Write the structure tokens for this entry.
Amino acid sequence: MERYAAVEKLTAGHGFCERRACRLVGVNRSAWQYEPLRGKDDAVRERMRELANERRRFGYRRLAILLRREGKGMNLKKVYRLYREERLTVRKRGGRKRALGTRAPMAIPQEPNQRWSLDFVSDALACGRRFRMLNVIDDYSRECLACIVDTSLSGRRVVRELSAIAERRGLPCMVVSDNVLCREAAAGFGQQISMRRQPSARHAI
């Protein structure tokens, strides 16, 4: 900046031409003649702030597209620079909260009828009609307690089938499933039957 002031002093106070003054001071003439254009971006900055308030999750690339549609097209790097200077950067959303600690491993059943597993399997006939199968397995003996096949298996149907198995074998200590319908049905299954088998202290889960 001192050299620029020296060039201005030579040209204004001593009558030097611009070319000679720049050569004596050692300033590039094109740099001396350069006029910053940032003051001409006020309208673009204002419109960018308005668009960012309307579209709060839009980044600078999408804002550049909206500006281009309004006839204010410019280099993407310049849009990014204005975007950063106006502090319009979109905050990153936080990651999914994860459970702290470790889950206790599921105990291994030590006798039959201690834990049942439920699972749905689906397939289609040759005509294209879908059907579902509900499999009930004893986790200790690996015995298939039931395999119910139908085109539709509601929660009430699952409760009815589980109740029929319980009448033959008795209630299990635990029923596990990774299916929402099975879990809800198992909860209803436990509520509808008044007599529950209580696990012994040795095999409590």
